[in-house]
Amino acid sequence: MHNFEFVKPSTVADAVQALAAEEAQPLSGGQTLIPSMKARLNAPEVLVSLMGIAEMQGIRHEGDMLEVGAATTHARVATEAAAAFPGLAGLAAQIGDPAVRNRGTLGGSLANNDPSACYPAAALGTGAVIVTNAREIAADDFFLGMFTTALDEDEIITSVRFPIPQKSAYGKFLQPASRFALTGVFVAKYADGVRVAVTGASENGVFRWSEAEAALASDFSAEALSGLSCPADDMIADLHGSAAYRAHLVAVMTRRAVVAAS
Amino acid sequence: MPKDDGIGASTKRREDTRFLTGNGKYTDDINLRGQAYVHFLRSDVAHGRITSIDSTAAEAMDGVLKVFTAADFEAAGGLPCGWQVTDRHGQPMQEPKHPILAEGKVRHVGDPIAAVVAETYEQARDAAEAIEVDIEELEAVVDMVEALEEGATKVHDDLSSNLCYDWGFVEENKDAVNEAFDKAAHVVSLELTNNRLVANPMEPRVAVGDYDPWGDSHTLYTTSQNPHVIRLLMGAFVLNIPEHKLRVVAPDVGGGFGSKIYHYAEEAFCTYAAKVLKRPVKWTSSRAEAFISDAHGRDHKTKIDLALDADHNFMAIRTETYANMGAYLSTFAPSIPTWLHGTLMAGNYRTPLIYVNVKAVFTNTVPVDAYRGAGRPEATFQLERLIDKAARELGVDPIALRRQNFIKADQFPYQTPVAVVYDTGNYDATMDKMLDLADYANFDKRVEESKARGKLRGFGIAHYIEACGIAPSNLVGQLGARAGLYESASVRVNATGSISVYTGSHSHGQGHETTFAQVVAEMIGVDANSIEIHHGDTSNTPMGMGTYGSRSLAVGGSAIVKATNKVIDKAKKIAAHLLEAAPEDIELKDGKFSVAGTDKSVDWSGVTLAAYVPHNYPLEDLEPGLEETAFYDPSNFTFPSGAYGCEIELDPETGKIDVLRFIAADDFGNIVNPMIVEGQVHGGLAQGIGQALLENCVYDDQGQLLSGSYMDYAMPRADDVRGFVVDHSCVTPCTHNPLGVKGCGEAGAIGSPPAVVNAAIDALHRAGHTHVTHIDMPLTPARVWAAMQA
Questions:
Q1: Nearest-by-Cβ selection for B654 from A242, A244, A252
Q2: What Rg, from alpha-carbon coordinates, does chain A have?
Q3: Domain spans of chain B?
């Protein structure tokens, strides 16, 4: 790891200011950034920790909305969101291992937008609002492809507002080595429709499976999905599975998520 | 008194106290005054010609002491190979030079090009980034079959081809084997891959070189399973340092699985650089480096045929294997696919004719050498998969087919057609035991239970034979070994009766300090806590060969027994003098010497004190002191065997396999510490199941390692390996070592992969997927699903 300056501001405003420095990068839970720095693939001059900012911490339940501070760890979401939004808590509980869950954060995961990460499926699968220091971004506009988001340079996610669904669940099939999602599907049923978001499968990162959403809107059951298959065209093919296998898993894990949510 | 800690007791591992409390002393815990750090600049291309190396900028950087390249090692030898295989035509194998730092060419990703020594590790790494290396990239040789094609790019320009050797065994049997196939009523064939693995011990490799101008002597601290072997190879062949000026210390070692047997470039580098710089030089491998510099394991491609007569008796076996050597010959690489593989192809069966052909191939990949089991898992996998396939094709029960062809209990000693003589075994007994523990009789009910939940259940069987404690030395010398395969022990009894045992074996997790102490405690009848086991330092242990091939108790333990018997013989003479009796009348029981038929006795410490304070002592006939050394060279291998049963559930929607239960019924001969044996089997099973379901070392066609980290190389986790049932109550003692022990370290990794794969095929066939006759390991969900779709 190369040497770097480390700052830990206590307000969002100070963090934004610190990030204006040359070669500065925000550090949240560090579950991706720190390993890449250790491997010398990333060498920021200044690391701006977002973990000391009180307003970015914690979970707030208001009516049918759950707002999660961007620097809240997966472990906190897994326990503290369990009553209000069990689907989200269940997803958080499946991320990584206890060490990862105790460090990794919601905002870090969404900003990184790893194509195999779990949280993007929850954000897109609920139509969440990504709140930054500058604006609010709808999840549908936020994820722009593998490791790419709508965030501007030095823009910080401060919280995420999840509309709480009537029913929801995350179906995750583990990549055997990393235990990221080889394919993960978040299914959420609302009064006005169903959202299905798929992670781990596509070359373009998290996406909505609109055919499944349509089928489930009228009949929220595994049977409603029978015969439905996801095209393999843009699917990831690697050591752990072909494009066809991932496309197949999308259908399987969607069904399982629907069963789990029902 | 020794009943709690003698032979047969599940004594808790004494070494675990220090390991679990952070008091272990591993090589990386050794930090010497004035120590500098080395970082190796490694090739990021698989094959290329080095056109220039400019380290001017790097040398000028902060903290940099020196940048080394191959030019600094012109006087040094290459890393030697410890086994020379002779090919089918009587010619020696092709043996390329393996330089410490790349000379002219790089031959695999990870091949070290230059080494930077600096005041700190980070400075060394920074400087390595400033070295300018021009490499003219060459076509990478990755696929073994393509590597042998006419006109293939050569990994080594000075060799005639990429073929290391073409070995036939037993070559004289080849025609008879082919004739048997012509006459056979049934021929069953299988093509399979034994997947390449990375050993991944918990402790990465570390080396600390130190030079002492006072005595012009060198010390190397290293993560080794056999420090004497490293001293011999590095001193005599690489750096030209005589043994009396070279000390090699391997302190606590955190796992090896074979990968820490070999002499590596980093060891020679640190030893040499310490003298050049007059500073201790330390190297600690990162996990990423371990993937591209530790020797890999397995990587065979095989076609195997079995000939059966009309009554389903095995008539002949014929195999053709491509074995990957990687870019250079690691220390024992050539012996693995030959003498540790071909000799095992008889398995547990009376197959009269066997012919094994092995083509060892150089490729632009990391060198491949022994990994837990080493050749024997490859043999067992082929055989046990093929027998299962044969049973299916013939429509017979795979258990019955095995039993019909087993070497029966009354047929030992049994001469196989592949040179070895099995001394003892009872394969029906282990099969019976396994089926009983597996509740196999009720398996069909469990299939139905799974079916009701939409899952496919399968049961797979494998029976294995292992050859441990490879020996005797004169025979292995004829087979090409460039080392002896004995073991040494010194038993030093101290004046007050406590005992220091120095063994040439080396524990890298096996619990020798506990087990060896139990043996000596049992023999003398003293408290095991009065016995200390020392290993790992060439300056205080007699020349030993170390630990691998499940040899430590069978060979090292036997040396300890020999030395202890010498001690007891002498102690009896001292006791006879003290008791004024004839030595032949002296009996040793529970740490007390007595005169047979009398109540006259002297205890152990009375004798040991007399040995060192020889006031009342037969000085005319006997030297003072009580310390004996013994070397034990076994007359044969030992042959552990066992029946393994694996019960799995397969999710037909995703292809995912869950191991529900794994039953291991082993015959390890006599057992010294049952708890340690059980732990050894657990570890072996975890690695065998890991190979069968998860682990895979994969290169792309450019020779880039695709599975170079735990993000892509799937190690088994605790929740992947559960439901183990381990039994070792079937005992046929080894007939030729004093303890009657056979060795248990590798069995789990040898017997389990075919049991897992057979279970998967069984599950698929029971559910009607009868077109699936084989799936190559690892049986990942994606592969199983793809096989079901085909």
A1: A252
A2: 18
A3: 2-23+486-632, 31-138+205-284, 296-395+402-470+636-789
List the one residue out of A56, A189, A176, A36 whose CA is nearest residue A114: A36
- What is the interface size between A and B, counted as CB pairs within 8 Å? 49
> Quick check: B79 and B312 in contact, CB under 8 A?
no
**Contacts of residue A122, Cβ cutoff 8 Å, sequence gap at least 6:** A87, A88, A91, A128, A162, A170, A186, A197
| Interface test with chain B among A38, A40, A245, by most B beta carbons within 10 Å | A245
pLDDT at position B4, please? 75
Per-residue confidence (pLDDT) for residue B3, from 0 to 100 = 60
The rounded percent of chain B whose pLDDT value lies above 90 is 98
- Work out the minimum CA distance from A249 to partner chain B, whole angstroms: 7
Whole-Å CA distances, B585 to A51, B17, B573, B598, B790: 80, 42, 10, 10, 77
- What's the CATH code, domain A55-163? 3.30.465.10
Number of H helices, E strands in chain A: 10, 12
| Rounded Cα–Cα distance for residues A210 and A224 (Å) | 13
Chain A: residue nearest B711 by CA? A178
pLDDT tens for each residue of B523-553:
999 999 999 999 999 999 999 999 999 999 9
* Average pLDDT, rounded, for chain B: 97
Note the pLDDT of residue B2: 43
| pLDDT of residue B454 exceeding 70 | yes
Question: Which residue from A173, A177, A248 is facing B711, i.e. has the nearest CB?
Answer: A177
CB-nearest partner of A239 from B656, B706, B781: B706
Q: B660-673: per-residue pLDDT in tens?
A: 999 999 999 999 99
8 A C-beta contact, residue B325 and residue B363: yes
Q: Rounded CA gap, A189 and A109, in Å?
A: 23
ipTM of model? 0.96
User: Looking at the predicted structure, is the pLDDT value of residue B5 above 90?
Assistant: no
One fold for both B2-23+486-632 and B296-395+402-470+636-789? yes
With CA atoms as reference, the chain A residue closest to B693 would be: A176
**B170 preceded by a cis bond (ω within 30 of 0):** yes
* CATH class of the domain at A5-49: alpha beta
Contact of A241 with chain B, judged by CB distance below 8 Å, is answered with: yes
Positions of chain A with pLDDT under 70 = none
Question: A240 CB near a chain B CB, below 8 Å?
Answer: yes
Question: Is B1 a residue whose pLDDT tops 60?
Answer: no
Residues of B with CB under 8 A from a CB of A: 122, 125-126, 129, 288, 653-654, 656, 693-694, 696, 698, 706-707, 710-715, 780-782, 785-786
CATH superfamily name and code, B31-138+205-284: Aldehyde oxidase/xanthine dehydrogenase, a/b hammerhead (3.90.1170.50)
Amino acid at B401: L
Scanning every residue of chain A, which has its alpha carbon at the shortest distance from the alpha carbon of B699? A239
CATH of domain B296-395+402-470+636-789: 3.30.365.10
Subunit contact B706:A245, Cβ cutoff 8 A? no
Compute φ and ψ for B35, nearest 5 degrees: -65, 135
Residue of A nearest to B782 (CA): A241
Task: Give B471-527 pLDDT, tens digit per residue.
Answer: 899 989 989 999 899 999 999 999 999 999 999 999 999 999 999 999 999 999 999
Cβ contact, residue pair B714, A245, below 8 Å: no
Strand partners, A171: A185
Reduce the secondary structure of A195-223 to three states and give it as a string. Answer: EEEEECCECCCCEECHHHHHHHHHCCCHH
Q: How deeply is A221 buried, as exposed, middle or buried, from its count of CB atoms within 10 A (0-12, 13-18, 19+)?
A: middle
Cα separation, B170 vs B165, whole angstroms: 15
Is A98 in CB contact (< 8 Å) with chain B? no
Residues of A in contact with B654 (CB under 8 A): 173, 249, 252
